[in-house]
Amino acid sequence: MQALLSAHDSVAQSDYGPVLPPLPDKLPDNEEAIRIVCLVKNKQPLEATIRKNEKTGNIFISRVIHGGLADRSGLLHPGDKLVEVNGQKVWGLQPEHVIQMLVQSQGNILFKVIPNTPQPTNSQPALYVRAMVDYSPLQDPAIPCSDAGMAFSKGDLLKIVDQRDIRWWQARKLHSASLCCGLIPSTNHKQRELWWSQPYQAHTCIRPCTKKCMKLFIYKELPSCYSCGVSSCHNTSATVYEEVVHYQRHIDDPPRLIVLIGPSGVGVNELRRRLIKINPNTYQRPISHTIRSQKMGEKNGREYHFVTKEVFAYMVVNHKFLEYGEHNGHMYGTSLDSVQDVLDNGKLCVIDLEPHCIHSVRTKKLKPYIIYVRPPSPACMKQTRKDPHFLSNRYIKRYFYDKDFEEIEEASRTMEAKYRQYFDCVIVNDDLQDSCMDLFTAIQHAQEEPQWIPASWFAPDHP
Ligand SMILES: Nc1ncnc2c1ncn2[C@@H]1O[C@H](COP(=O)(O)OP(=O)(O)OP(=O)(O)O)[C@@H](O)[C@H]1O
């Protein structure tokens, strides 16, 4: 009901349509085509930016943000020359001055503009991407106006609606209540790489902007203020956005690989073990390889593939493993072939993985669905973890200490900060039964519901 009322209010408030005054009788022949635009001022910002041509003194509309007031009016466009605001000529004025005029005006605002013709059309289809970095326009000194920018975090899904500006795209977040777009940096910026490559720290190589953007009806574009020389802050380039497509698994497609990730001790193995135990005909883990000797009761190919050091080394060198490492003085590894064996058996393959190995499974063939198992608060862990457990690197069983819970929480924070852009789903492992249920639901969701996956997993195979 509340949503309905709020929807009604926002529609009712949208009375910003043009109210055109009558045209003057005598128009000089040599006068450029002038458009008179009257907008009714309400609480929303106009969502446009202006810039001044310092040589000619002309003021132009440089951007109109999609979904904003100016855009919805359909009457103001990038490149339009602003001639008058409420009857006052703006030629030669500083943009701040124009902004003040807009702020001070009450009721209707009358713009006289010389339309930019022809209008560049936005012919590019919308692009969907996943953000691979965190971005805050408030900390980006290069953005023309931070108020027009849109902050995003790793893993956010963005719809890029306008790429006409080579440096600043317009995008909106999917699954967000706001329909309005904001500016985000394009991937074309050469110097961008320098900024993206240091997403976790303040970028000390860039001089902070001295001019402040004003959160007003119309924004003034700030000059770019990079002062960073390539030599002074070299860094590897990072992928900023990953193009994604909406993927609905076809019934004949192999099931997606289910990958569980979490800090040591959170319960990844327990959840996987329970899932397989409840439904062994549907789920299976791949059989790992090891160089340790076979124990009584173990069967080669059932508990492990027992191989020699030489065979193991050969597999490492030939990139057969998705992940391998040492445990209690012996080498263990999960091979791609063992995952394939599970799939060939018509089962759903569930593996746990160290996060730094995510790239080895992010392939078109495996189309992994990555589930992050997050610890609840240390207090909740203390409540739920009362039984002794095996320490991960030793065959020693002991109770959890308070210190363990804090360490798990800290490890989780670090892991999420670094890898959360890859997580398709997060399960908080508080109550074990609930978490098992959540895991079961997530896996069903992964196989049956449409999901955003990297577009590269959809690209045709190269011959
Ligand atoms: N939700 C839970 N409630 C109570 N106990 C749990 C829960 N989840 C896991 N445990 C217990 O916590 C202990 C550690 O779990 P588990 O061995 O699965 O951790 P892990 O994440 O696989 O870590 P490692 O990789 O170090 O083995 C086990 O004794 C397990 O039974």
UniProtKB/TrEMBL annotation:
PROSITE patterns linked: GUANYLATE_KINASE_2 (PS50052), L27 (PS51022), PDZ (PS50106), SH3 (PS50002)
Supply the source organism for this entry.
Sinocyclocheilus anshuiensis
- Taxon lineage: Eukaryota, Metazoa, Chordata, Craniata, Vertebrata
Q: Which InterPro entries match?
A: GK/Ca_channel_bsu, Guanylate_kin-like_dom, L27_dom, MAGUK, P-loop_NTPase, PDZ, PDZ_sf, SH3-like_dom_sf
Which residues belong to any copy of the L27 domain? 1-19
Residue ranges spanning the membrane: these are none
Name used for this protein in its record: MAGUK p55 subfamily member 4-like
Q: Which UniProt keywords apply?
A: SH3 domain
**Transmembrane helix is among the record's keywords:** no
